[in-house]
Amino acid sequence: xxxxxxxxxxxxxxxxxxxxxxxxxxxxxxxxxxxxxxxxxxxxxxxxxxxxxxxxxxxxxxxxxxxxxxxxxxxxxxxxxxxxxxxxxxxxxxxxxxxxxxxxxxxxxxxxxxxxxxxxxxxxxxxxxxxxxxxxxxxxxxxxxxxxxxxxxxxxxxxxxxxxxxxxxxxxxxxxxxxxxxxxxxxxxxxxxxxxxxxxxxxxxxxxxxxxxxxxxxxxxxxxxxxxxxxxxxxxxxxxxxxxxxxxxxxxxxxxxxxxxxxxxxxxxxxxxxxxxxxxxxxxxxxxxxxxxxxxxxxxxxxx
Length: 304
Description:
The structure is a single chain. The chain is mostly beta strands. The chain is 8% helix and 48% strand. The strands form 3 sheets. An 8-stranded antiparallel barrel has the order 12-14-15-16-17-18-19-20. The longest helix is centred in the C-terminal third of the chain and has 7 residues, at 208-214. The chain is globular. The model is unreliable at 8-41 (pLDDT under 50).
């Protein structure tokens, strides 16, 4: 199973290795707990939404154009955060190998493939002019016209007109508006518990070097049911689709757009301009001789 904020194969692969806890406890970057007498009562958030957060600044401009008949662009999405994403069209005859993620903020060494080459994707910011033209940083401009026509003018290229269809927008409500931001990682927590709920291991990560090695920089969530992983060099490293599975408990599911579209389930807790993303998965541990639960909590802040 692939998950949201982690990006490299190091952390998860090491968690279950013999000697991993001894190694991590010797590090000055983390704190460890290995106490079977402690109940794990504080895993999930009690209060799911508190404080206030302004809606993303470009909420009214957010749109996703699915382009038809163009050899270079599959879709263009303008997000409520003020970012744009341009993806090339899918090429069913050309498979691009990728490293599939372990969590929505975490990864392991699972090889998958997709029919879209992210090397040809574009990501940046946009501004809007009075004539309904959007200027996309480091790309050019787009202008929506009547009859589902979009004029595209890339820097240094000839203007062209393409047809499009608009993606459906999620319903307008407080929960969707709160989630539809760019969430930048501040720190993370890893916790392992036994089958009877005892804490076996706990690790807090705050060191910037470790965060950059083990995680992506941010998750951009859109009101068109998309999300994008943003790397520390501000490039897109992966993307997929999300939807609420339990709005009352603020749980959403997600899938990755690959040939094996696995995903996960995340509970999110909001407080003012911060959000904690809780994600768990289960597996058998040879080291502990039992089924264990591995929880990842990504502590984030809305940057737009």
